[in-house]
Amino acid sequence: xxxxxxxxxxxxxxxxxxxxxxxxxxxxxxxxxxxxxxxxxxxxxxxxxxxxxxxxxxxxxxxxxxxxxxxxxxxxxxxxxxxxxxxxxxxxxxxxxxxxxxxxxxxxxxxxxxxxxxxxxxxxxxxxxxxxxxxxxxxxxxxxxxxxxxxxxxxxxxxxxxxxxxxxxxxxxxxxxxxxxxxxxxx
Length: 187
Description:
The protein is mainly alpha-helical. It has a single domain, classed as Butyryl-CoA Dehydrogenase, subunit A, domain 3. The protein is built from 7 helices and 3 strands, in the order αββααααβαα. The radius of gyration is 29 Å and the shape is elongated.
């Protein structure tokens, strides 16, 4: 496959995996029920952004890296790819860091917990969705590192040149033409 054909799908993939991981991090990751769940506050849900706050931030780094891939070229684009790989690896690893400490903290505020009722924590599939999105982002980051230097770069057509344009001294005829047009040539 031609490496240039990967450019668009990789950029789109970075946006989708970063956005998907961010959305999945905001969903409920676990529901904990103390006893039969009838007491006030005996059931609580923890979202991924509460459990592991860094996951949402790393997902936004992956999504923003799509702009980095679009706006850079050469070795800088490879560095962006390495940042994507590092952020995605950190996000995938921290996804399963374990919400145990946060669950224990919340349990201390539940009155039913002090009665010795059983505690049941049911995880959802959202941590897995987040982890899969980060693994896909890591693969995309590797593609950026391997093939990014061959992809097209933004045009420099409208960039300012180093040469500064010097004002042209008006000649005698320019002064007379300005007077004929009704403009004051001394301003």
